[in-house]
Design brief:
It is a single chain. By secondary structure, this protein is of the alpha/beta class. The structure holds nicotinamide-adenine-dinucleotide. Nicotinamide-adenine-dinucleotide (NAD) binds next to helix 1 and helix 5.
Length: 421
């Protein structure tokens, strides 16, 4: 198939590269000229394991442009993958989605053949039908359902293992407005080795939010259990193992630590809370999960102050700035509130991350960035904030280490404390 992807960030580029690997012809559209240039040169503008290789292998099947016209005229399906960040009150900023939809519609006005528009960005239930559909009809002057197809196909990939998640998903959800779009997406996904669930547009949107808020709650739940376990000297990870062996619970997302960050959970949880409250159904469980997550990273600093009460003038090493390993993404990284708190208390920061220092520098330009993890170990105390593999082979002996991510090797430190174990 000929497919265009609008918005080539983490989701869009992975989607494009994976469909290209499966033999489809992809046109990537982005408003960022630097991204377009890099993709054109077969280089990934983001760090994601295997993406560079996939782009290089599929060079003849992927083109990138800023021009909606050529992209839409030469393709049959368009995936909308622009960002849907949160606003100050937690609600979603739909300006990128609306702008991209208008641009798509303006081109579809001139197009003679049927075209399917698929929303892949995470949007709240009702958005595709109540916001995207009318915009498409208004700016294309055509009827959605006959001249234009519309579907909602949420993405569940995890950064760091995004390619594997995309190609071997647990399930694919196709929310559809019209039968022709359902058939087109069924055909596109027919060889994927997983169940395919066909739903209404809003059920697809809700499945994405219900999944993410549930997983976020699972993490906060084990963190709350962990905080109690630490007080009682019980190993939280043994508890998680015991719980996880129960098939009704499962072991995934029971790694206690300093909480969730990233581009999805924080904004999806905030947006869901704001939306549920607007619908006069306060989401009490999810609100509590969110509160636990706000408090959890600062526990690392509280524990640190048991060993170094006055942080003013002390050098504190931060191992890990990405919100999770194997990505350069620092959005809502748990290292952010920790560094902010340490700076507030007058500490000096020495930080290292294998991939995310560039992104972190835009937030904290003046802290010290080290060339290696070993350099961070010269600090007065070390906080482990991301579970990068290379942190498992460091020599922590003689150090004060407060661990937010459960690195077994760090237990060799002179003083070692886990955040909630
Ligand atoms: P991102 O910020 O990495 O990428 C968005 C891209 O869209 C950027 O490259 C930006 O330049 C481009 N863009 C913005 N406006 C545009 C326009 N009018 N036309 C063309 N391009 C435009 O975002 P992301 O992390 O890929 O997330 C995209 C969506 O997918 C969000 O709704 C997010 O919630 C959802 N999602 C993300 C993940 C994830 O792990 N990152 C997983 C599942 C779902």
């Amino acid at each position: 198939m000929n497919i265009s992807i609008i918005g080539t960030g983490y989701v869009g580029l992975v989607t494009g590269a994976c469909f290209a690997k499966l033999g489809h012809h992809i046109t990537c559209v982005d408003i960022d000229p630097e991204k377009v240039q890099k993709i054109t040169n077969g280089i990934s503008p983001i760090y994601e394991e295997g993406l560079d290789t996939l782009l290089a292998l599929s060079k003849d099947k992927i083109t990138a442009t800023m021009d909606y016209h050529s992209a839409l005229m030469n393709t049959d399906i368009t995936f909308l993958c622009v960002g849907t960040p949160s606003m100050k009150d937690g609600s979603l900023d739909l300006s990128y989605l609306k702008e991209a939809t208008k641009q798509i519609a303006t081109i579809l006005k001139q197009k003679k053949t049927w075209h399917c528009v698929v929303i892949k960005s995470t949007v709240l239930p009702g958005t595709t039908k109540d916001i995207v559909l009318p915009l498409l009809e208004q700016h294309a002057g055509k009827k959605v359902g006959t001249d234009i197809g519309l579907a909602m196909n949420p993405e569940f990939l995890k950064e760091g293992v995004a390619i594997q998640d995309f190609l071997q998903p647990d399930r694919i959800v196709i929310g559809y407005y019209d039968d022709r779009s359902k058939t087109a997406l069924r055909e596109l996904y027919k060889d994927f080795p997983c169940p395919i669930l066909e739903t209404s547009l809003s059920a697809a949107e809700m499945i994405k939010y219900a999944s993410n808020t549930f997983l976020a709650t699972k993490i906060s739940f084990i963190n709350e259990i962990g905080n109690l376990c630490k007080k009682l000297n019980i190993d939280t990870y043994t508890v998680a193992e015991g719980m996880g062996l129960d098939k009704r619970i499962g072991r995934a997302f029971l790694d206690s630590g300093i909480g969730w960050g990233g581009s999805c959970f924080p904004k999806d949880v905030d947006a869901f809370i704001a939306w549920a409250n607007k619908n006069k159904e306060p989401p009490r469980i999810i609100e509590s999960a969110n509160l636990v997550n706000t408090c959890q990273p600062l526990r690392l600093v509280t524990i640190l102050q048991k060993h170094i009460p006055h942080l003013k003038g002390k050098t504190i090493g931060i191992l890990g700035l990405a919100f999770k390993p194997d990505t350069d993404d620092t959005r809502e990284s748990r290292a952010i509130p920790i560094v902010r708190e340490l700076l507030k208390k007058g500490a000096r920061i020495k930080a290292y991350d294998p991939q995310a220092m560039g992104n972190f520098k835009t937030l904290f330009p003046t802290i010290d960035y080290c060339d290696s993890a070993a350099e961070v170990l010269t600090a007065d105390a070390i906080l482990i904030t991301t579970k990068w593999k290379e942190f498992t082979t460091l020599d922590y002996s003689g150090k004060i280490v407060i661990d937010g991510r459960r690195i077994a090797q760090a237990k060799n430190a002179k003083i070692y404390e886990g955040v909630c174990w």
